[in-house]
Amino acid sequence: MEFLLVLRYLLMLAVFTSLGAPIAALVFREFPRRGAAFSLPTALIPFAIVVFWIGQLTFGLHTILIGIVVLIAGAFIAHRLGGQPKWDSVAVMYGVFIVGFSILVVVRAASPSITPAGGEQFLHFGLVKSLERAPGLPPEDFWYAGEPLKYYYGGQLQVTSFSMLTGTKLRYGFNLGIATFYGVMFVVAYGLTGAIVENRGYSHRFGGALGTFFVAVGGGTTTATRLLTPYLPDGVADVVSPAAFGFVATRFNNGALSRTIAELATPSEWSWWYTRYVVPGTLQEVPLYSFVKGDLHGQTLSTGYVLFAGAVAYAYYTAPKNARRRRATILFGGLGAIGGVFGFMNTWALPTVGGLTVLTVGAAEAHPATLLPERYADRLHIDIGNTDTRPGWLIAELWRLLLAGVGAVIVLLISITIASPFLLFGDVPTNNGIGIFPPRSPLGPFLVIYAGLFALFAAYGITRGWPIIEGTNRRSLTLGILALLVTMVGTVVWLDFAVLAVTGPLLLGGWLLVRSGRGDFALILLIAGAGLLLSFELVYARLPQIGNPRWNTSLKVAVQGWTLGAAGGGAAAAILVTRSWDRLSDFRVPNSALAGDGTLTSWRVALASSATIALVTMVVLASLAFPVMALNQEVARDAVEGDYDPTLDGRADLEQRRPAQATAIDWLDDRPGTPTIVEAPGPSYQWTSPASTFTGLPSVIGWDHQEEYRSPEAYTRRVTAVDEIYTGEWTDAAQYLDRYEVQYVYVGPNERERYGDELRSFDRSVFTVAFENEAVTIYAVEETQLLNPSMEDSKQLRAFLSKNP
Questions:
Q1: Contact 685, 118 (CB under 8 A)
Q2: Rounded to whole angstroms, how far apart are CA atoms 222 and 451?
Q3: Which residues cross the membrane (predicted)?
Q4: 3-state secondary structure of 435
């Protein structure tokens, strides 16, 4: 294990935390610990924006240092404005960050290699390497030479910046970057849920611990359901089995359900990889899954920032009504800045910022109109809700939401402006717009994943609303319950929308509780999470080259839904357990209990409290199954067998299994600047395009992701060009070498396997052997010779031109 590198990273992140602490203390001044838990992301967000913007002009270590200088200036100004951190709390919260950071260091150290199988580590490592080489942003596309990158790169930009700042090679910085963002999510979850719970009068530590568990560690109820299926009664198992295993059986085992159950319900055969394949036609991950997978995907790295957006929204929610400017600054400056980072880091999270804005501004005690100066606010503050009529109340509530929506539009416009070099003036991947009403999720598989989360939502909602329920006339209550049941059944039968039948009442009931004053920010987070999980039942991004309509949308959105919902669920669970435990502690059986003198109510309280604690315990245990099994598979088995040899070297597999190729790639990696190379194309998710991946040098064409980013025609044209370079008539090859300004031709095992006997001879004056070993030969192209063909080549050139005028 490279412990010195780990310590170097932790020292750098401690500096970021220290610089962010005064700003966090200013923004989160109503929070119990003045926002100590949010010090690190408070620093990272403006740092990322400064590096991104200056990088459009010039990028390098100097750009990153300018970002640090701006951050120092911001910390100084915040301190002068009253940002006085509680440094002991900052230190404790940094300790929480270290815990999360260390968990992922241990996991990645067990399997650190950057591999193409099953994920997109090749894509993301090539990205960070190309960023490291880039003189400006965006970098040249390492899989599509001559054109700027057509992919959001904010997460990779931050990982690269951390490595450059610490002088760490990216072969290690790749894995340390993953651990950094997991640690950010870990500490933000602790701080946000802890603050919500403490503001309700309960333990910050207990709330923070449960919130962190559900967000960063817990894995839904999928694993527990699958492992328990063989022990269920036959009638129950017949219902559960298709829901829990059907999609895996269809996708991987030709529909063999029994075989799939035998594999995934057996602990020794179980694999964490299959836990995202539950709802047909979707990919639904929880954060720990995404981080264990080890990509630098935007939806993975941005989970901590999504939760940080929730924390900033909570700062707005708790700010005094009369602090108009501060509320406006938090809303438009804070959420606007986070949304701006999402714009070039994970564009899929931009709508989430808008949704959080609507929920928070609409639910806060301060009317949305009060964000404006008083003379304008009075005109917009239509207080019809002061009347006792239901239509008046409804109109007032709809007006609040409309104004909150206007606020969300402003936040999104600010975000888009911050990310405009990418979103408006850059190269955004092509898409076909938004589609509506995709294939819907069956209720069974949906509940296999989210039963625990929605059970917490329902339990918390009932607890918060119980005084209202008790105060309602029994006849009215009965009629209301019947109407709800009829509506739910109708939604299932007539609309074939079972997920809406479950989530709809919870969303509506939760919002009514919030607006009645019975709810809190835990409910808002639960509403946000459930709303995101419902969203891709209604709309989806229509992406080219992806036939399954919800495939990418569910992957990018579901993890955000879990992140926000689990934070609310963790806070709710802590409040439910603490409140129930207190009630049980106060419970005493009266001596006259047998006399029937009204002790039934006490018994009801005791039974309800016991049931609540049991429910939360079951949800925790069910969620615990995934991390226990996943960490056992990734780390514990090797440790027990003595095979755990931890390292953070992402090139370990390359150097152990392909040492000769590693030496050739090292030689290429040492070339200054960004010379264009050519290597053989091949299938994605296999060992193809290794030279461009591990060096970041632009290659004529790489993985077929470019079909989606550019077009199938553009991808095919370049594949044809590369094939001609390696096998075609020399005049054709020379034209393509010149067109793409190729400086090095890579000939290794992939090229020999793809072209076989058709591979051309490079015994020409145009080529000189720049590097050679037993596996790889790299030819340097003498560009001046390309346009000076021999007599024989001139004949071929004339023939080529006559056919292609």
A1: yes
A2: 9
A3: 6-28, 35-54, 60-78, 90-110, 172-197, 209-228, 296-317, 329-350, 401-425, 446-469, 481-514, 521-541, 561-581, 602-626
A4: strand
Angle between the 170-199 and 303-318 helix axes, to the nearest 10 degrees?
30
Cβ-based burial of 489 (10 A; exposed 0-12, middle 13-18, buried ≥19) = exposed
**HEC readout, 79-113:** HHCCCCCCHHHHHHHHHHHHHHHHHHHHHHHHCCC
Strands (E), 647-789: 676-678, 742-747, 767-772, 777-781
Backbone angles phi, psi at 780, to 5 degrees: -85, 140
**527: Cβ–Cβ under 8 A, 6 or more apart, which residues?**
359, 507, 510, 511, 514, 568
- Rounded CA Rg of the chain: 29
How much is the average pLDDT of 641-654? Answer: 89
Q: How far is residue 55 CA from its own chain's centroid?
A: 24
Say if residues 285 and 566 touch (Cβ distance below 8 Å). no
Beta bridge partners of 771: 778
The DSSP-derived string for 538-593 is: TEEE--TT--STTHHHHHHHHHHHHHHHHHHHHHHHHHHHHHHHHHHHH----TTG
The answer to whether 746 touches 667, Cβ cutoff 8 Å, is no
**Could you tell me which residues come within 8 angstroms of residue 132 by beta carbon, excluding any fewer than 6 positions away?**
160, 163, 164, 170, 696
Segment 287-305 shows an average pLDDT of 96
Phi, psi of 768 (to 5 degrees): -130, 145
Q: Residue 415's CB: how many other CB atoms inside 10 A?
A: 25
Distance of CA 749 to the CA centre of its chain: 36
| pLDDT over threshold 70, residue 257 | yes
Close Cβ partners of 85 (under 8 Å, ≥ 6 residues apart): 21, 22, 24, 25, 34, 36, 39
Shortest CA distance to 136 belongs to which of 63, 69, 66?
63
Q: Which residues pair with 777 in a beta bridge?
A: 747, 772
Q: Is the peptide bond before 442 cis (omega within 30 degrees of 0)?
A: no
**Pairwise CA distance, residues 393 & 612, whole Å:** 33
Beta strand 676-678 pairing with 742-747: parallel
- What would the DSSP string read from start to end of 193-236? HHHHHHHTTS-HHHHHHHHHIIIII--TTHHHHHHHGGGS-HHH
Q: What is the pTM of this model?
A: 0.94
Containing 752, the helix (H) or strand (E) segment is helix 749-755
Query: Does residue 586 register a pLDDT over 80?
Result: no
Which residue intervals of 319-442 are DSSP H helices? 324-328, 336-345, 350-363, 374-380, 390-418, 420-423
pLDDT of residue 231: 94
Residue with tokens 């720049």: 770
